[in-house]
Amino acid sequence: MGDSPLLVAGAGIAGLWAALHAAPRTVILLTGSTLGENASTAWAQGGVAAALSEDDSPALHAADTIRAGAGLVNPEAARLLAEQGPREIEALYALGAPFEREPDGSWALSREAAHSRARVARVKGDQAGAGILSALIAAVKAADHIEIREGWRAEALLPGADGGCAGVLARTPQARLVRIEAGETILAMGSVCGLYGVTTVPFTSQGQALAMAARLGAVIEDAEFVQFHPTAIDTGRDPAPLATEALRGEGATLVDRAGKRFMLPVHADAELAPRDVVARAVHRQVRSGRGAFLDCRTAVGGAFPERFPAVFAACMSAGIDPRREPIPVAPAAHYHMGGIATDLSGYTGVPGLYAAGECASTGVHGANRLASNSLLDGLVFGRRAAEACRDAEARTVKAGPAAPSPVLPAPALARLRQLMAAEAGVERDGAGLARLLCAVDDLEAKYGAADALIAARFVAASALSRTESRGGHFRSDFPQTAPGARHTRMRLDEACAAAPEPLLATGPAE
Ligand code: SIN
Fold first, then answer.
1. Residue 390 Cα, ligand 1 centroid: separation in angstroms?
2. Which of 87, 197, 372, 474 is the most buried (most CB within 10 A)?
3. Could you tell me the distance, in angstroms and rounded to a whole number, from the CA of residue 483 to the centre of ligand 1?
4. Is there a domain that residue 123 lies in?
């Protein structure tokens, strides 16, 4: 076992679960905010998918995960996810996460898109993320092996003399830069979705982990696969509040301005079609001016305040009463399937560096994540990364110099977010992606290689190199899915090259 502290950067579900499961190893847990703030986990509404009912099984859950992932899911990752699911729910429940139970004691389960069974364990209707996070925060605060440093933001990785990672350079609450050396570091710092003009996650999720890992030589995998949630509440808020997919699971319908259901001609599963299909349909409705609205009046009606309190509050504060009127919706960047390439224990291939949760790419989500598999991913792979670090051979680290990434001024960041939404959004094409890369070059020439620019570059270069449409990646100039499924894998120098290598094969196509 490594005898130096284990560093965990990030305090969403993956980081906190990893910190808890690294015991007895000492953990230094860094979070740029106070615990519970700026973690996408807190905003998750639907719940955690797991095979918990009599008519379900991990094999069915894994099969749905693989089907949703459009040919790019690593079947072993899906198997681990699905098999571990029920145990993780039990463990969270034992910790105090208040999952709902039916009167007979069984789990209360919601149905969400592309699941063949009702299998989403929920908390007070739409409060899953917040309920789970508060149980986790209480547990880490009570854990003797965890030293929590709130307001400490990881800004760069320390290079080790062996070419690996030797810890992090962190900014303290007093704005000092401090080097923290560690034999192992787990990055669990969330997604790139805050780089989009419309997002459902905290604005602060801007691909920092991805950029930090890439600078140290890590491979970034499948960065083009950004998932757009079809039903963000469209009232001009940034970030946009979510109207959980569980509403459609309850029977809420998607209608145009005239009240006509528009998913019926698009897909046999209508509102419960795979998320990318619904997101594109909503996108086209909005773009055409016909509008997109989620009509919950019949399916939920007067029960809204009790059954979906978070959505209800978000609507009411924007002057929309969802019991009486349809909710205006639009797609918003919601989840990054791609990220830092890791094995199934979170190891990045860079000695001492691990990643877990949304910033990692284990291949478990492929091209399109199945609804409510994200919290489960954080649990299963956060735990596995912690166990790998706990059991790692002691590693001597000798840390070299590191500097923080340049900061992108607010107007430049606003421009980047607008460009990401326009050119790397629900529908992309080669010309738009090339424009985006040129804009990233210009911004970088002016302000330096900020983390946000590096992350945006990976998304754009990967999307440009994938000349097909698959899952969350839709190219209007290549609308078909190409035969054979391949991952996109790039290091920083490849992403920076004008013509990135197209689609390096990484294994057998499914
Ligand atoms: C939702 O509640 O619709 C989001 C769940 C998810 O992203 O998996």
1. 31
2. 372
3. 30
4. yes
48 plus 180 within the same structural domain = yes
Pocket perturbation via mutation, ligand 1, pick of 45, 247, 373 by most ligand atoms within 8 A of CB: 45
- Given a cut of 80, whether residue 80 has pLDDT beyond it is yes
**Distances in whole angstroms, Cα of residue 23 to Cα of each of 2, 132, 147:** 12, 20, 12
Look up residue 378 and give its amino acid.
G
Contacts of 140 (CB under 8 A, 6+ apart): 11, 16, 19, 20, 29, 35, 146, 148
Average pLDDT over residues 360-365: 98
Task: Say if residue 319 is in the same domain as residue 464.
Answer: no
411-465 pLDDT, tens per residue?
A: 999 999 999 999 999 999 999 999 999 999 999 999 999 999 999 999 999 999 9
Which entry of 25, 79, 122, 275 is annotated as an active-site residue? 275
Told to judge if 275 belongs to the known catalytic residues of this protein, a careful annotator would answer: yes
Question: Is 460 found in the same domain as 446?
Answer: yes
* 205 and 254 co-located in one domain: no
Distance CA 325, CA 301 (A): 10
What is residue 468's DSSP assignment? S
Pocket test residue of 109, 115, 200, 242 for ligand 1, highest count of atoms within 8 A of CB:
242
Q: What is the DSSP letter of 478?
A: B
Kindly list the strands in the beta sheet with 327-336, ordered across the sheet, starting from the edge strand earlier in the chain: 226-233, 327-336, 293-295, 253-255
Q: Confirm whether 154 is domain-assigned.
A: yes
Averaged pLDDT score across all residues of the chain: 95
> What pLDDT is recorded for position 505?
39
- Mean pLDDT of the 66-86 span: 97
Residues with CB under 6 A from ligand 1: 45-46, 244-246, 334-335, 371-372, 374
* Closest approach atom of ligand 1 to CA 49: 8
Gap from CA of 426 to ligand 1 centroid (Å): 17
Domain count, the chain: 3
Task: Tell me the pLDDT tens digit for each residue of 14-56.
Answer: 999 999 999 999 999 999 999 999 999 999 999 999 999 999 9
Domain that holds residue 383: 6-223+337-390
- Please indicate, yes or no, if residue 152 is contained in any of the structural domains: yes
CA of 369 to the centre of ligand 1 (A): 10
